[in-house]
Amino acid sequence: MSKEAAAKAKPAPAADAGVELFRHEIRHEARPLVVLRAVASTGAVVVEATVHPVGAGMDDEPMRRPFPFASELQATRFVDEALVAFEYLGCLILESADRA
Predict the structure, then answer these.
(1) Are 18 and 38 in contact (CB under 8 A)?
(2) Which pLDDT value is given to residue 16?
(3) What are the residue boundaries of the structural domains of the chain, listed by start?
(4) Which of 12-16, 42-46, 51-55, 88-92 has the highest mean pLDDT?
(5) What fold is seen in the domain 18-95?
(6) What DSSP line would sit under 26-47, residue for residue?
């Protein structure tokens, strides 16, 4: 396999395999809506978004999606922009004090 093919086939870094940088929980009408969690691993930062759709039941499995970034600065800017949008929509933003 060529180096280019290997690079394309490489999966995004797993959000569980690193040090948690920060976590924000977004709530709307006292109901959990989104958790944004940034995890640093070797040479990258992954922001894991866990979304509880508004129309879904409380027992439904949330949707999870990783967003890989090359640096902590890029990940922080991404999350900051998302938090501003959620605040504009009237959501409550909670920052977790639990850090690894």
Answers:
(1) no
(2) 52
(3) 18-95
(4) 88-92
(5) q64v53_bacfr protein fold (2.20.140)
(6) EEETTEEEEEEEEEEETTEEEE
